[in-house]
Amino acid sequence: MTAFTPDDTARLADALDQAIADGAAPGGVIALGTRDASPRFLTAGRIALELGDLAPDEHILYDLASLTKVTATWPLVCQAIDTGLLDRTTLIRELLPHMDGPAPSGKATIGQLLTHTAGLKASTRLDLYRGGETPLHELMLREDLETKPGTHRYINRGYILLGLALAHVTGRHLADLGRDLWDRIGMTATCYGPLARTSQVAPTEQRIPGAPRMWGIPHDDNATLLGGAAGHAGVFSTAHDLARYADRLFDPDADLHAWLRASMLPVAPIEPGLDRGLSWIVAPGPVAYHHGFTGTSLYLAPDTGRYLAICTNAVYGSEVRSRIAPLRALALKIISAT
Length: 338
Hints:
Blueprint: H1 6-21, E1 27-34, E2 40-45, E3 62-63, H2 68-82, H3 110-114, H4 136-141, H5 157-170, H6 174-185, E4 191-192, H7 221-225, E5 235-237, H8 239-250, H9 255-263, E6 268-271, E7 274-276, E8 281-283, E9 287-292, E10 296-301, E11 306-312, H10 320-323, H11 325-336
Antiparallel strand pairs: 1-2, 1-11, 3-5, 4-5, 6-7, 7-8, 8-9, 9-10, 10-11
């Protein structure tokens, strides 16, 4: 295992402080560590203006947003493949309730959906499907493709379908599947929303001036319309639990360790130096990582046994991608170093 150096830790702490000073987020927590060692947690700022000077710690619940894809859907699909419920070549149509007629999007395979290469329609507004009698999966599967299958295009639609499929083939609610998964790993705080508005939950965006801030409900509207539990978003977790998750993924005796290794094989290019594996982005190092729109990130370097998790509510009042970009870039640079 390759431990983080004091300089690594100092630079990450400075970058987190600078992000907060720049208004990227009211505060945040970084978990960093190596396999089988106690993680270290860097904290700064405060949870939210509504909570005064209350500082965040490793037990504050943050909306993971798209980290849901790699902390819920990806491991659940991997487990379903291991038990024979599906495989990477299975068509998504075969895993959802029967429907008659053409279904262009239903020809997408599980592997294509995991790697964002199915060619599905990019925009997903589930609110536009309200008011009818046709089941959601039929509406989505009947839509035409937008791009040729095999080309990478990051979208949420495929993971929404994966969440619906997991619930159908298991006969269980997605939130219950997640709960069983996280309990086995020891991620006792991780859960799908909605959650109570307490000081243990970091609020996110104020959508309308003068209205209450989003707090304990997924920032993603589609996840909220699906009751809070969806394949693409909706999970809340802590820096402590993300560190526990990383440690489990590094355990060679754990089933998900082999899946992590397999998922880091490049499938589709994203840009020079970055490829998409199964769910994860793959960078030189090798490193697997993923971001969440709300201001969260998880980085894994299994060869060195190092991991980094960033928990912030950067969507609280800023443009997430630009203002938190320096912190994320530094995290990737440090985790990629050998």
